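#structure-requests
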Amino acid sequence: MIVYRRISQGLFLLIFCFLFVQTESKGGDELGYPVKIFLDFDPLLSFAAFLSSHTVPSGFYLALILLIATLVLGRAFCGWVCPLGTLHTMVSALKGKNSPARWYRVKYYNLLFIIAASLFSLQLAGIADPLSVLIRSFSLSVYPAFNYAVRGFFDTIYSLDIPHVVNVSELIYRGLQRTVLSFGQPVFRQGFLIGLIFIIILALDFVDKRFWCRSLCPLGALLGFVSRFALLKRSVNNACTSCGRCQKICPSGAITDEHGNARIMECLYCMDCDDLCPQGSISFGLSGGSKFVAMNVGRRNVVSSLVAGIAAVPFLRTTPISATNRHNPKLIRPPGACEEKEFLKKCVRCGECMKVCITNGLQPTLVDAGAEGIWTPILVPKVGYCEFRCTLCGQVCPTGAIQRLSLDDKQRTKIGLAMIDKGRCLPYSFALPCIVCEEVCPTATKAIWLESTLVADRAGKKITVQQPHVDLELCIGCGICEKQCPVLGEPAIYVINSGESRSRDNQVLLS
């Protein structure tokens, strides 16, 4: 079974990586195979989103399939499927022998904290969920670093200017461009921080094998609780000689002593103990089942975890930015995003919307949306604008925080409003001709219109310039004018979130 498990882990990791690479624009406005299918099967994300927003996520029924499979096969997802678990297995292989699981209760406290917070409308599951952690880390840190390293490597080869080497390298590079490299070099503001956290999560495997899976993973805790009632049972018969070999090789630390007794909620159903038992005394089947060691998480700690989850709600929301997005006019959400409070209840910080953004304009927040909104998407026009003919972010969102819009609806959806700084605008302040913002404006009837005005330069010479104005009704806040403004430093035209379609109150003209 060890060989079959390794094949299964490798296969699902390859599927994950394939879907991850495919989750980007291929020239059109439709995604073929988004990696969000893994998130759709995630019961922790669906359950937390349901509790916090009181709406059923699109992948809710797929998540039920995984729960039903766990009721039959136990916590096999963690041992046979989870791509992050596979990475932990690979890193843990460098450590050596297993050590007893010492911190296994912590993940159950994490789960209780998340559930309690979700009940009071605070969505924190995506910060610690393993699939969300993996996709966010890959999207915002690992994949951009990979692209930069590959491009830097080939740039170095090209600089050597050796004809035959350059020709071969060009063929290889073109193949990589068609398969695994992104269209352009992605950059993200929190890339280093998110990458560092990911490295620390993997590095903990040198402290204890599969430390994350054993001690921290809230999804593993949820599946562990469900697996307590699994039909597939583990048995130890009287042939056991108490050699302790099963305890030494158990990757999850579920086996507690040399007699083969185990915490069933911790068992990953990897069946390594069955394969390596010299007496063949361990088996898995739909009948029988030996006594398992009771879980003792501590009543006081359970209550403390629940109280901490409830207490986190007011602590994270008693800031001006958390109270309403009007306190941060630069908090521009993607088109199709729910109203801010509802958005924060649904968003799981997976980073998929940022990965598929064609212009790289969607960036993760840090404090822009308050502590509650960490790593949620924000449009930063100076980095990239919202492409007028793109609806990809709504296609990949697993919870409906960003609703999928038709192209017509998207092009009518306002995410903000352009404002002109006349003190920096060339035609207004310097009597210099410039019509860039009007030229790039993508709306059918230009939201930026020009007024011919006679002005005088310093010498008193009269010249005619085209001074831009913004139409309140037509501007959708896409930010292309801010991105393309030729004024260096702070652009002369910028976008704020006033006028966004998702809010009745955040309007320039309330009437």
